[in-house]
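Hi C.,

You asked whether I'd gotten around to modeling the 183-residue construct. I have! Everything is below, sequence then structure, no commentary in between.
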Amino acid sequence: MPRRGPEAGNTHTFSNSLGRHLQYSQTGSEESFFTKTCRVVHGALMFRKILKVTSKNEGDIINIMSDVEEAVRESGIQEGLVHLFVQHSTAALTTMEFEPGVVSDFRRALSVLAPDDAAYAHNARWGDGNGRSHVKAALVGPSLTIPLANGAVMCGTWQQIVMLELDVNAGRERAIICSVDET
């Protein structure tokens, strides 16, 4: 099978239309190339990294701010947008003040919108008992876009980026695509 992506151990330099350069080294396997890439798209740099987040329980709200900030640093991009997308239909992304009171209030609000004891057609069809998980995830949404200035995400002082684990069958690794795009 032909390799897709750069050969392991190679260093690549990307240049945008403004003449800015970003060097990216491929030191891992082909699989890791698709976990972290950088390329020029329409004259602008685009960096992508897959963030792995492990949950333990339904209702976990996991602060991923430091993971996103690390990806931004790795990208070398100073001005642009950070796009996040969780690749699961029973997880979601949002921003909030990540403190116990807000976390508790948010969990309660979601349980009012999609109660545990409600009858869900999904449960009747599939028998997996996670109809409420799908509803909660759809209400919050799988993606976020955040401005980037001077190499930092432009979240407010008390605003953190979080992933919501909403599946009744929690305790697994979730993949979040983090793209940092130069504007």
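If it helps when you're writing up: Confidence is low (pLDDT under 50) at residues 1-34.

Thanks,
B.
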